[in-house]
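EI: anyone free to look at a 270-residue chain?
SC: sure, send it
EI:
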Amino acid sequence: MLLDGLRAAPACLVTVESTQGSVPREHGAWMAVFADQLVGTIGGGHLELQAIAEARRRLAGGPVTALGPMRFALGPALGQCCGGVVYLGFEWLTAQDAPGLAQRLTPRLHPVALFGGGHVGHALARVLAPLPFALTWIDSRDGIFPPDPPEGVVCEHSEPVQWAVPRLAPGSRVLIMSFSHAEDLDVVAACLRRQREQGDLPFIGLIGSKTKWATFSNRLHGRGFAPEELAQVTCPIGIPGIGGKEPEVIAVAVAAQLLQTVQTMPKAGE
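SC: here you go
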């Protein structure tokens, strides 16, 4: 939408340059302001209204109130009780700026490998696609993926399925929920072997109950994995406190848990 808009009219790009204290959005958040439309958000509220007004003043050729980033204190003056400070940058954009703009504004994506194309797998692919993850969706069966997977999702057939583990991108978060407990076990074992050799999988999550994990633990111990290695597996998966076993509910709980694992993602207020 932003690139299409720039072909017709200039815009002012508003970017969160830095923050102090509690604020609605993190460093790097952006909003493109056109004369008659907006793309993106820097958090809403009076802060965003002030930023839109400043951007449109610049688009209209009005006086520029600051050459560098502008300081906005989120206190009584803006009617916001966050209490933090936001520094916003304002940048004029035209169609000539379009090349490379999408890559520049795209947040860093963290690789996720999803093993299993069942109901929960389908729900998870839909939930994870718009989040800051680069999703590779893997299954050993033919014809299991939808003809039109979510945008950005890479579908991969692997037979046997565990052979995909050595090829995963470094830093991948792994979610295991195949159609078969035998496949699940093989994928977990392959992940633990990779951890032993490379130690580059920050999250290994297995769908199932505590009983399933107790059985898997015994079998994996028999394959030579030590208790401290087994402790790297999270089972059951999903943040606690969310009831319901519908695929969509499980998908939301698992997506929230993955977001908690991404330590490099800026948090509001930092």
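EI: The CA atoms of residues 2 and 206 lie 39 Å apart.
SC: 👍
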